[in-house]
Amino acid sequence: MISKYQFMQQNVERRAAGLREKLPEMKKSLDTVKFLIAQQNSPKPSADQETHEEDLDELDDLEIEDTQDDGLLETTYPLQDTLYGHATIDTHNLDSVYLWLGANVMVAYPLLEASEMLSDKLGKAKESLKQAEEDLEFIRIQNTTLEVAVARVHNWDVGEKRKLKERGQLKDSKDVEQ
């Protein structure tokens, strides 16, 4: 029974670790889409307007180099851990984004639909992580309770065997633990 709880604990820990690993990437994707929506909805900049630095600071992994006066955004983005690509994005004429869904699948979404989908996925992932942490706490408590119960039964059995040996009813010394 203890091994079943330990197995369940390992599975829940793995699931929670996977979710913790995915959450920052999901948040970055959502922040990027929200930034693109904000850029698309902003009026076309005039020569005296500057890029909103506070909007750019949220996007750590996406290096925004410059928003030019004509609405072009130059960026460097990660493809792999050590591989980066460069892109110039026309933020005012942008109507869709491409999102990796997993299993080598990429789908084009309109900006607002992508934002909604990513928000839903992020919310579900946070809820799933919360549930996994609650499950993990429950399993730990059950595992501890079971270990204590097994230890008590073992100690009771040792005590009973000692009593029987003292009365002379138990002859084999291997049956009694010291």
TrEMBL record:
Spell out the coiled coil positions from the record: 115-149
> What assembly does the database describe for this protein?
Heterohexamer of two PFD-alpha type and four PFD-beta type subunits.
Q: Give the CC-aspect GO terms.
A: cytoplasm; prefoldin complex
Q: A GO molecular function for this record?
A: tubulin binding
Gene source species: Corymbia citriodora subsp. variegata
Q: Tell me, which GO biological process terms does this entry list?
A: microtubule-based process; protein folding; response to cold; tubulin complex assembly
Entry similarity comment:
Belongs to the prefoldin subunit alpha family.
Put simply, this protein is called Prefoldin subunit 3
State the function annotated in the UniProt record: Binds specifically to cytosolic chaperonin (c-CPN) and transfers target proteins to it. Binds to nascent polypeptide chain and promotes folding in an environment in which there are many competing pathways for nonnative proteins.
The entry's keywords:
Chaperone, Coiled coil
